[in-house]
Write a structure and sequence with these properties.
- By secondary structure, the protein is of the alpha/beta class.
- The protein has two domains: 175 residues, Ribonuclease H-like superfamily/Ribonuclease H (Nucleotidyltransferase, domain 5); 33 residues.
- 41% of the residues lie in helices and 14% in strands.
- Strands 1, 2, 3, 4, 5 and 6 form a six-stranded mixed beta sheet that branches.
- β2 and β3 form a beta hairpin.
- α6 crosses α7.
């Protein structure tokens, strides 16, 4: 399966109010392996960025003045994305801007050109309810190195999102190892007969048992004496 991780930077928060895309970054996965076939554009939006947006991405009007308009890259972008499964963090935002850019040049909506859209923000909220699920928060939680992300950048954020998605789903090792037969989704299945191993049983020592009971006691105290193990006892 061909998957594209996509991110955009914009002049502001509202496509309907005239804000435009200034950067698009795409990172390709094929059969769940990074290919290096990425796509990146800076775009001239024909307007200034809002001050708050400029603080986020740092991309100035001066830098963008000689960059192409969206219309000039639309064919290349859509050909690259066609029929792929596109993965975006907070997809409603980016898809809304892409749809508006396509509408302005008389092209069909974005979602009709791709094979589907996955929103990793929705995935993360289901996996980590009640927690912060920004891209930075997920990088920290999943051990993805985002030390180079001083400002937002579409290509960098797409690359980070690919790492986050790998960790959200099956983990880097399961995606990249070639030790067994490959499935349709590119994952690897390794059949291992554990009967060939003499697995040791490691018993807790007295200190560990005492510490364990202390933790249980604290949990029971915090719950007001309503823990299941106390009820069963």
């Amino acid at each position: 399966m061909r998957q594209i991780f996509l991110d955009t930077e914009t002049t502001g928060l509202s496509a309907d109010s005239g804000d435009r895309i200034i950067e698009i970054g795409c990172v390709e996965l094929f059969n769940r392996k990074l290919t290096g076939n990425n796509l990146h554009f800076y775009l001239n939006p024909g307007r200034d960025s809002h001050e708050e947006a400029l603080k986020v991405h740092g991309i100035t009007t001066e830098f963008l003045k000689d960059k192409p308009k969206f219309a000039a890259v639309a064919d290349e972008l859509m050909a690259y994305l066609q029929d792929a499964e596109v993965i975006i963090h907070n997809a409603a935002f980016d898809v809304g801007f892409l749809n508006k850019e396509l509408e302005l040049i008389g092209r069909p909506a974005f979602t009709g050109l791709v094979g589907g859209v996955i929103d990793t923000l929705v995935m993360a909220k289901e996996m980590f309810p009640g927690k912060r699920n920004s891209l930075n928060a997920l990088c920290d939680r999943l051990g993805v190195d985002n030390s180079g992300r001083v400002l937002h950048g579409a290509l960098l954020d797409a690359e980070l999102l690919a790492d986050v998605y790998i960790n959200l789903t099956r983990g880097q090792d399961a995606l990249l190892m070639d030790a067994g037969p490959e499935q349709l989704d590119g994952s690897v299945v390794v059949n291992l007969d554990l009967r060939m191993f003499d697995l040791p049983v490691l018993a807790a020592n007295d200190e560990e048992i005492t510490a364990h009971h202390e933790v249980l006691k604290q949990i029971d105290k915090s719950s007001g004496g309503k823990t299941i193990w106390q009820a069963l006892a």
